Amino acid sequence: MYGSTVDEVEDIRSDDEKLAAFEARIARGEKIEPGDWMPDEYRRQLIRMISQHAHSEIVGQLPEGAWITRAPNLRRKLILLAKVQDEAGHGQYLYHAAETLGATREEMIEALLSGRAKYASVFNYPTLNWADNAAIGYLVDGAAILNQTMLARCSYGPYARAMVRICAEESFHFQQGKEMVIRYSQGTVLQRKMIQDAINRWWWPSMMMFGPHDTESTNSQVLIRWGVKTRTNDQLRNTFVNQIVPELHEMGLTVPDPGLQFDEDQNMWLHGPIDWDEFWRVIKGDGPCNRERLEARVRAHEDGAWVRAALQAYAEKYERTNA
Amino acid sequence: MPDTQWPSYQVFEQPGEDRPLIHAGSVHASDREMALLIARDVFARRPERTTMWVVRTEAVYARTTEEIAASAPRVDPETDAPEHLFHVFVKRTHKGVCVQVGQVRGQTAEGALAAALQAYPDEGFLWWIFPHEAVVRSEDSDREALYGSSEGKDFRHESHYPVRTMMLELRNRKRGGDSKKSDQGENR
Prior knowledge:
heterodimer; A: mainly alpha; 65% helix; B: 4-stranded antiparallel β-sheet; 8 strands; 25% helix; disordered C terminus
């Protein structure tokens, strides 16, 4: 875009005054938009969050994508294709939102392909059978929806608007997963075992999607102060537990948490201790599928080079003949 | 040619016939036709019989009302220079996006903005002006090609999954003391 006179018009306020005005806008519930003044730290945190979120959507296609060719029937195959297509689209909304803050698409893609970029650690686990798709829809997307519903109220306009679009579409991902979990749980002995096993493997990775405990979360303070997050990691995680656990129990399933207990005083379920060593190991690259996910992304990029070259050649030819 | 993500295009969609277009976001594409196709893939997966516009980002002239107050856009001189049609979009609310308000004629984008401020004395936060030549739009005849494959795919909507009914039935079965579970697994 062009036409901005912001460099010609001097902003004579001090940094303190600018920060106070910015924080007052946030307190009033106003959205911060591209081109508005914002502290460097706000921009940096948002670029980090939004690009990681975008990478998570793109990498998130891979555990499920493996099952497109092995769906149990055509209907489930079409549903899975639709879900994966949505995830590609969600990644695109989010890359666009990060670009409004000054990140370039080239930098973000390069960071992902080089292995530098972080993404949700939950996608570093393998999908072993079809029941995993049910567990992922129910637990992983269930957790994502809680997080994204909160982020739909975030102070940065393009991110909040991307979240609204994503939430509207993600609800189908959750429902199709839940439907399958219910069906498995009410099926044959073998089907019930399959879904219980999938829940057992996906429960803790889903719980870790909410991030470290509040006491360990270094970014949360400033994110809450500036309206990016409105609830803490532990608050969201507890909401998740109290939504999902009663439903699983009704289906005759359990969660693999020996420390899970119902607190009569607070009238809520409390979960047991989380194995944070595993969380940090997987985030740092030592999870079961980290290398595989990265290789799949690099291979997709390299295998797709001829498509990009063809589009480029066509674009140049079209420009030449229409000059 | 280095591997780049190609030029950026702003995407606008029309939520219904005779409704103003609204800004949906942006895409990167190798050319105008791909920009429209990619915009459909990214923004219009559910059956939406809308018109879509894509405009090269570099063609959009953007000014905030603060900038306008500090430095008013210059009116085009009264000459015989040719005039072009420019589209006018305004962001009216804090939480909103740029929305179409109308069209003006002008020699330059800046002159068009000056004309737009006269024609549409709205209190907006942000003005976008771009020439009509920069717009690539989907035609009515494109609708089948763009949206036909999404028709009838109810499974993309959450209402397609009867989970509430299923959970109710489950509870009723339990309450009725019927602990027998089906031996026929549902092969769905």
